[in-house]
Write a structure and sequence with these properties.
Chain lengths: ~400, ~375
Amino acid sequence: MTMGDAVADAEPLGAGAGTPPAMLRREARIDLAAISRNVRRLRDLAGTPHAMAVVKADGYGHGAEPVARAALAGGADWLGVVDIAEALRLRRAGIDAPVLCWLHARDADFGAALDARVDVGVSSRDQLREVAAAARGCGVVGFVHVKVDTGLGRNGVEETGWRAVFEDAAALEAEGVLRVRGVFSHLANAGPEEDARQVAAFERALSVAGDAGVRPDLRHLASTAGAIRVPESRFDLVRLGIGVYGLSPFEDATSADLGLTPVLTLLGGVVAVKRVPAGTGVSYGYSYRTTARANLALVSLGYADGIPRLASNRAPVSINGRRYTVTGRVAMDQFVVDMGTDTCEVGDDVVLFGDPATGVPSADEWADAAETINYEIVTRLGGRIERRYPS
Amino acid sequence: MSALSPTRRAVIDLEAFRHNVRTLAAVVAPAETMIAVKADAYGHGMVPVARAALEAGATSLAVLDIPAALTLRDAGIDAPLFAWLHGPRSDFAAAIAAGVDLGVSALWQLEAILAARGASRPRVHLKVDTGLSRNGASVADWPGLVRRAVEVDAAGELRLHAAWSHLADASVEDDEAALARFREAVYVAEGEGARFPLLHLAASSAGLRMPAAHFGLVRFGIAAYGVSPFDDATGADLGLIPAMTVESEVASVKRVPAGHGVSYGLTYRTDGETSLALVPLGYADGLPRVAGPRASLLLNGRRFPIAGRVAMDQVVLDVGDHPVAVGDRVVMFGPGGEGEPTAEEWAEWAKTIGDEIIARVGHRVQRVYRNGSPR
């Protein structure tokens, strides 16, 4: 071993990783045709000239590259990722569609982005200056989207700074260094009143931009929730994230209500079945005891795979077409299901969630069981889970 | 040096890890120490952690399944490896060829191993269920499993090396009952003619607090990573040093007026004029969304609570008038020596255990190793 610090590359383990063929069943089955359908559905609904599919965080855990291709096939004409590294990964995979990234390190390598024809979201005058310097260095025109904060309190220029940033941007455009392709912001999804307030703030930002002489082709504010329910937030482009994956951004509407198909089916395998008497404690801490003679199935997925421990004794699973509940604490690599008087065989599939229209539990149910949202359920799936893309 | 991503780093202090292994090995000696490096060494990175464990006195490594064992062999690690969770597709032939010890919980596994052994004589550890109700032969199935293993051992087809089980850590009484069941199972097996060179039952909890469960070997997992297996004692209380520090850097700072909402749902509003610092760690990186309302991060020597909801890629800190600049270091958790939260605190905030906090750190978080060579 070498002295000093060693750095391990943080390539995602998902799509394309060299998984050994013979292994425990831990599978995320991803329906790429459903990705394309969901994109088409949302694009039709929004009716905007442009639609961006957001494939950050390795495509919300689905595999960024295959999702990107399926989304483009479904009518998306832009891709959104969080940082330059994610954008370059798409380029290396041979995807040449327009890509936008928007969260950067202090010393971000904007030159690498511009060289790869990646559009850069900028959230401050400093970033604008840095992108301009990189564009000059590369001898290319840098395409930027200026992000304004309309109320979310995260990235984006505060209202007090809008005039200055757009004046800087206009000057750099005039110089031929940059082109402001977009102006964008992000909704907080805090209810219709807040949405309206944010839309109004965004309009003000656009008018400040216009006064400074900045005329973006792409004004974008809405993500999936706005694309579906806030028509006035749609502008030129909608950024579609969770909806692409067939999941609902709303508490009061399911995927089916929105005409979307959940894309990911999570499967584990039964590795043991045993018959136990009433009163048998199950898993760590005996947080569950059988109430009658029962068959217990052991499933080869655990919290190291992203199965939330908080969902212990709450979350549903499906085995051979019937629903059961995770019983006892979810462990690092496995959990137990009390099947009552039913039984199953070693090697049988266990569906944790998928498309509820097919009778299996949904990611929404897992989100409830884990006191979170469906986004986190799919995004946190771990590297041991094999991503498969049946055609 | 310029960067392609915001900083999201898990710094693994291999000397802290080795210290823990040495400490634990001393506690259980003369029993041997097996270190669990399953689940990519609880998120720390399996190969470097496996090497460090062996350097610090572990005599074998626990890997859960066969593919993980083969990864270690491919990395040139030739120490005894133990894999025990198998499915019908598991590649026993590859495991046997690589000299991996196999845990056996059921007759079908024993037969599959025999069918795959070729000319080799694989070493097996028979598992009995002493009350956890996961893997392991039930009391009813145990004698049959032992009988078959004794028969093929006598025929020179495999080596019956150990009997083992795993505790439920439910209570002292429950663990003692499990220990009694384990002794009974060994007694039953000996009645069937089995002679086990090795017995093992204890993991971190019993390794530290139940000497009667030590037998010839203790399997340490969570404690080796410096995180306590107990509710009533921290890693530090046990003389252990957390090996992982997850850190990031402030991605933006901005001044906002009073009443400014923060993050989805605008569940947080600023009290007065203040500065908001954006930190590029989110639930995709393993910062649990459910912890948001309780969690803090360390920034410039102070803890600041997370303002508003945890998002996929980022969280916001309301830093008031404290001087904060883009690029300032932020610590999610670590050993605690600088005042940063520990994984144990995160576990409480996320209504879980430290094991899940460290094991779920996401793949965008770059693993960086300190103190690679032993001192």
